[in-house]
Inverse folding.
């Protein structure tokens, strides 16, 4: 087909030239037989060389212009040999690569007397003139191995970015047909990511198409909880795991999907008494199920375990897409976010059923007892409201100063069989300010809960503090101690086993 293309170009020029000659009576008319044989019959390619013929004509007698046209014709023939074609899908990189190659050839043919560049050279040229018409014919020879290497290199550049998009997209299409919807979504997102950074003319169209396909793939994935409303005692393991199934068709009896990653989130209690979110990632088993055993909770109350489809790893590749593409990303994120189910559970404590004594001493600036029990009052107010069986006992400063072991021994002996637990500690004033109009008091202390039978410390508040203001010292102190007790009481109600 290469030779036919060459002959077609050259023959057209020859016919045009001969027709002009036929209409002219100017001496020196050259007939077809006077042309070199290689013009109409280029040399056959050898194992080492590929030949190319080019022809150019100028009706004003400009031989340089005719040679330029002939050189461009040679370059065109070489480009056809390469087998690449610029289209709407050709990347800027590919266009630049081809342009650099052809312009180097073209410029060399124009400017170099030997017309040689690398492994290419002009081996023959022929010029004929009839009146004002000049025709130039060029025969170029290209080292075959070198030309084939250029062909492979340029074809690879042409295919590179297109394959980065079309390859994953085709894989996604194939996976969709087999019902591997999650894997298909991952491939579509990969293709969309490649399109978002591509310089293809229609890259945005490819991005949108793959994002639409990703939404469709995610949309058919279903998550179902197989149990709910589980209960467990504080700091103890649930008797059964939280059960999830993922299907590719509606219903818990639908076609199960395997190998799908799931993000599991639930709340935990931090040492400072505040709750935070714990996140784990697991992969669905071959039966399309997750059996998740939540670690023992160290708080009391009702919370939820959330299980969600996890595409975060794939979506990270789209974080820096141009603003114009964000609507498509947001639409996909909304679909992914909808693939989530919750499990409600309750953490139960025995603490409400356990008879508990409260002995807390409030201290003034000197470290002496204030003679009041505001902190204990705050603790009792909260725990009583929560249904705890609690009672205040007489505060004995000497006992509270005897250390944990001494306190436990004394109270156990003094109140035999009356209490199973003891809430004890001291709270003192750590800061006192009086600006003449308002008094600010800061109190702090460590309150503990102990099991009187085995001496195990079940709870410690740590060195907490509370600040309060009042019109006078008495009211500020009373408020500070009372609020401190309420804060500690709430913490106990949420964490005592």
């Amino acid at each position: 087909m290469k030779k036919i293309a060459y002959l077609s170009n050259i023959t057209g020029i020859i016919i045009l030239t001969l027709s002009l000659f036929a209409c002219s009576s100017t001496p020196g008319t050259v007939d077809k037989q006077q042309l070199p044989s290689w013009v109409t019959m280029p040399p056959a390619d050898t194992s080492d060389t590929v030949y190319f013929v080019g022809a150019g004509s100028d009706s004003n007698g400009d031989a340089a212009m005719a040679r330029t046209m002939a050189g461009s014709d040679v370059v065109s023939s070489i480009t056809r040999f390469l087998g690449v074609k610029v289209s709407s899908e050709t990347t800027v990189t590919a266009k630049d690569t081809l342009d650099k190659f052809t312009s180097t050839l073209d410029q060399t043919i124009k400017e170099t007397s030997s017309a040689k560049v690398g492994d290419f050279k002009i081996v023959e040229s022929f010029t004929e003139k009839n009146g004002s018409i000049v025709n130039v014919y060029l025969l170029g020879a290209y080292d075959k191995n070198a030309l084939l290497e250029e062909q492979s290199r340029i074809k690879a550049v042409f295919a590179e970015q297109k394959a980065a998009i079309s390859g994953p997209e085709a894989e996604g299409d194939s996976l969709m047909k087999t019902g591997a919807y999650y894997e298909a979504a991952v491939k579509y997102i990969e293709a969309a990511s490649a399109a978002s950074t591509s310089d293809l003319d229609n890259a945005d169209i490819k991005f949108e198409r793959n994002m639409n396909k990703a939404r469709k793939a995610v949309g058919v994935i279903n998550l179902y909880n197989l149990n709910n409303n589980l209960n467990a005692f504080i700091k103890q393991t649930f008797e059964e795991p939280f059960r999830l199934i993922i299907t590719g068709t509606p219903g818990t009896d639908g076609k199960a999907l395997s190998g799908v990653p799931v993000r599991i989130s639930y709340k935990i209690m931090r040492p400072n008494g505040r709750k935070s979110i714990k996140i784990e990632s697991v992969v669905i088993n071959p039966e399309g199920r997750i059996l998740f055993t939540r670690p023992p909770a160290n708080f009391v109350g009702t919370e939820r375990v959330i299980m969600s489809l996890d595409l975060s790893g794939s979506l990270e590749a789209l974080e820096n897409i141009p603003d114009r593409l964000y609507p498509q990303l947001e639409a996909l994120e909304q679909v992914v976010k909808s693939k989530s189910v919750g499990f409600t559970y309750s953490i139960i404590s025995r603490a409400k059923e356990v008879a508990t004594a409260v002995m807390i001493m409030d201290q003034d600036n000197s470290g002496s007892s204030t003679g009041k029990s505001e902190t204990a009052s705050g603790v009792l107010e909260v725990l009583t409201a929560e249904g705890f069986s609690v009672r205040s006992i007489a505060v004995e400063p000497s006992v509270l100063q005897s250390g944990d072991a001494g306190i436990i021994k004394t109270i156990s002996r003094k109140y035999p069989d009356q209490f199973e637990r003891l809430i004890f500690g001291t709270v003192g004033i750590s800061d006192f300010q009086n600006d003449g109009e308002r008094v600010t008091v800061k109190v702090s202390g460590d309150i503990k809960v102990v099991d009187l039978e085995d001496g195990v410390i079940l709870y410690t508040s740590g060195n907490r503090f509370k600040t309060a203001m009042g019109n006078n010292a008495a009211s500020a102190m009373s408020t500070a101690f009372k609020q401190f007790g309420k804060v500690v009481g709430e913490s106990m109600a949420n964490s005592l086993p």
In short: The chain is about 40% helix and 25% strand.
